[in-house]
Amino acid sequence: xxxxxxxxxxxxxxxxxxxxxxxxxxxxxxxxxxxxxxxxxxxxxxxxxxxxxxxxxxxxxxxxxxxxxxxxxxxxxxxxxxxxxxxxxxxxxxxxxxxxxxxxxxxxxxxxxxxxxxxxxxxxxxxxxxxxxxxxxxxxxxxxxxxxxxxxxxxxxxxxxxxxxxxxxxxxxxxxxxxxxxxxxxxxxxxxxxxxxxxxxxxxxxxxxxxx
Length: 212
Ligand SMILES: Nc1ncnc2c1ncn2[C@@H]1O[C@H](COP(=O)(O)OP(=O)(O)O)[C@@H](O)[C@H]1O
Ligand SMILES: [Mg+2]
Prior knowledge:
Strand content: 5-15%
Function: Phosphorylation of dTMP to form dTDP in both de novo and salvage pathways of dTTP synthesis.
Order of helices and strands: EHEHHEHHEHHEH
Number of domains: 1
CATH superfamily: P-loop containing nucleotide triphosphate hydrolases
CATH class: Alpha Beta
Protein name: Thymidylate kinase
Bound molecules: adenosine-5'-diphosphate, magnesium ion
Strand order of the largest sheet: 2-3-1-4-5
Largest sheet: 5 strands, parallel
Pfam families: Thymidylate_kin
Family: Belongs to the thymidylate kinase family.
Helix content: 55-70%
Distance between the termini: 21 Å
Mean pLDDT: 95
CATH topology: Rossmann fold
Number of helices: 8
InterPro entries: P-loop_NTPase, Thymidylate_kin-like_dom, Thymidylate_kinase
């Protein structure tokens, strides 16, 4: 898997309510220091076509089989990589992704139980690149779900899953982090938001120092 050409590709992963959106603003500010361009993306979505696919994926009225869910995730990701991420990295920008392929391994692999060999093949073929650095915000399922619900609004199709689904998602994320310790930084996201932010910012600064 080729690493990002010139820029730096950072992704942030974790279950519902782990605090990804909360931490991203702080990471964005660190990456932008020195005047570097930062491109923030979210999944599924991030392009007009991808946002249309997001509707299909997340609206509670849809009855997607797991295989269709996986392929739609990668359809949106293929658009995002080619229209946004690769051009940004080629310009030397930093890309800050709210979820990427690790989420497919966690949700469609761990959660839905799909064969991870197929997901790895899609990663090679449809995504074609992997982040340089990935933050995993790890929090207990009940705590994360309580936070996500406190945000208000109607839960989307995936947020309506049962706790055992999210337990499998969490376990799959942790297994990926364990298998690739060089790329992953696992942050204890059960801490108060300030402490989570500080831990993530310190880990990013540390990584940037080692990869000038
Ligand atoms: N460490 C934390 N402790 C307590 N509440 C938090 C923490 N991080 C985020 N929150 C709150 O929990 C909710 C979900 O956080 P959010 O950043 O949207 O999670 P995610 O993007 O991972 O789903 C928000 O209302 C946010 O303000
Ligand atoms: Mg979020």
